[in-house]
Design brief:
By secondary structure, this protein is of the alpha/beta class. Helix content is 31%, strand content 21%.
Length: 473
């Protein structure tokens, strides 16, 4: 399928359906898609790129469209690679309405504030390092500042409710469906010009302990679909739990620390759930000292507890009985930086969950710096790691890695457990696609090999657009 328009700063006019792609195109992060329908311009997500390039190179480049011309932004969920560029969008002129579920709205505030803080801290660190070297500071300013993020909060308007059609304008209706990925996550169906275009967002896998199963929109004409794990099947949850418990027990008896790079939304809460369950069923020692060292994950965990109706029946029942499903014994929240720094002076006996999950920044990088070189320590990876990230280097078997400017020999035990993924695997993606029923599909949010493997399995007309490719629908 050849693109019919390229790199278009499309102008308004007519009621022609058009779509263009501005992120997560033949790669996993930076989701951003633009739909022109019913005389309106609708953006679906505007997320950060995450990986090896500098933020200013990846995220600061031209969007490929005029931010000021966008009427609506429909946010599928609150992960950074779906919402992280929203303050930048506002800074560049967006004055439209952001629509999301209420849980996504709450979580996105936490995520965007955290991203703002990390950028400002990184810039200050670069300034200090340049000053110590006696050099002029050449690194760019943060992509956006706190004022831009606060202005972004003002753009949030109506709250979407699952399965309830939401009229955006004459002849333009959006309906959010539970995608089962994280709390509040959604697939979005847009109806206009007699057509139904479905954006999958990120799709979860069914049968997980925290969330309900994905609820695919049906009767679509066009699907824009993620393909993160389009080339593989996940391990069974039971097998993955057994591996996880074994890794924790080995590390506990070895006396070293355990570092778990953890995504703050959903993954941290799921691990806390299973650690609590492991202690209660005598599969883990109650003597472990557990630290959730992520202000964002701490805030997200508190938000999770406020939305029992959007979680699985198992979690809802525990909350109804007054049992906190995310509170194992000996759990300590470390919000303050001083508390986190104190953990770096602990040589053994601590299980530390910290972000970011791909080890591209955040507190986990400091913990890796202090523990990767210790033979008694363990590092447990429980999520996807994109190419070019520190996590991917370690997973791929690097004997030494550069962490915060230091070369660190990897002596710690490294465990990679794939069954905890919050993304659907190949079989689940195929099932979702079959239920949606779209004869025309655009694959996004995946590395090329995964996309190709999934494309040959799907029915209908399949395209894998590159950045700024545009199509008439």
């Amino acid at each position: 399928m050849a693109p019919r328009a390229r790199a278009g700063l499309w102008r308004r006019g007519g009621n022609v359906l058009k779509i263009s792609f501005h992120g997560a195109d033949r790669e996993v992060t930076g989701s951003c898609h633009l739909l022109q329908a019913a005389g309106k311009r609708i953006l679906i997500d505007c997320g950060f790129y995450q990986g090896s390039r500098r933020l200013d190179e990846e995220n600061g480049r031209e969007l490929g469209f005029d931010a000021g011309s966008v009427d609506f932004l429909l946010l599928t969920h609150a992960h950074l690679d779906h919402c992280g560029r929203i303050p930048l969008l506002v800074k560049r002129g967006f004055r439209g309405e952001i629509v999301a579920t209420v849980a996504t709205r709450e979580l996105a505030r936490v995520v965007m504030l955290d991203a703002t803080h990390l950028q400002e801290e990184e810039h200050k660190r670069e300034l200090r390092h340049a000053e110590r070297r006696g050099e002029a500071e050449t690194s760019p300013a943060p992509l956006y500042m706190l004022v831009d993020t606060l202005n972004a909060f003002d753009r949030f308007g109506r709250n979407a409710v699952y399965r309830q059609p939401l009229p955006l304008a004459d002849g333009l209706v959006a309906t959010f469906h539970d995608s089962g990925h994280i709390l509040g996550s959604a697939s979005v169906a847009i109806e206009a010009e007699g057509r139904k275009i479905v954006f999958s967002g990120d799709l979860g896998n069914p049968g997980r302990p925290l969330l309900r199963d994905p609820d695919p929109p049906q009767g679509a004409d066009v699907a824009v679909m993620e393909s993160t794990y389009g080339d593989r099947r996940h391990k069974g949850l039971g097998e993955s739990l057994a591996e996880f418990y074994e890794a924790l027990n080995i590390a506990f008896h070895a006396g070293g620390n355990v570092i778990i790079p953890t995504f703050a939304l959903e993954r941290a809460q799921e691990l806390l759930f299973w650690i609590r369950d492991g202690v209660e069923t005598n599969k883990l020692s109650p003597a472990m000292h557990l630290f959730l060292d992520s202000p964002m994950a701490i805030s997200a965990t508190e938000i999770f507890a406020r939305y029992p109706d959007e979680q699985s029946p198992v979690v809802a029942k525990l909350l109804a009985k007054g049992v906190d499903p995310f509170a194992p014994p000996n759990l300590k929240f470390t919000r303050e930086r001083a508390e986190s720094e104190a953990l770096n002076r602990v040589s053994g006996g601590a299980v530390i969950l910290a972000g970011s999950g791909m080890a591209t920044g955040g507190r986990v990088v400091h913990h890796l710096r202090h523990n990767l070189g210790r033979p008694a320590a363990s590092v447990i990876f429980v999520g996807f790691a994109a190419k070019g990230t520190l996590a991917r280097e370690i997973i791929d078997g690097a004997r030494a890695v550069r962490v915060l400017g230091d070369e660190i020999r990897v002596r710690a035990r490294i465990h990679t457990i794939n069954g905890f993924s919050a993304h659907a695997d190949q079989a689940e993606l195929m099932d979702w696609h079959a239920r949606v029923g779209a004869p025309r599909t655009f694959l996004t949010h995946g590395e090329p090999a995964a996309m190709q493997a999934l494309a040959v399995k799907l029915k209908g007309e399949i395209a894998m657009p590159a950045f700024a490719d545009g199509f008439e629908l």
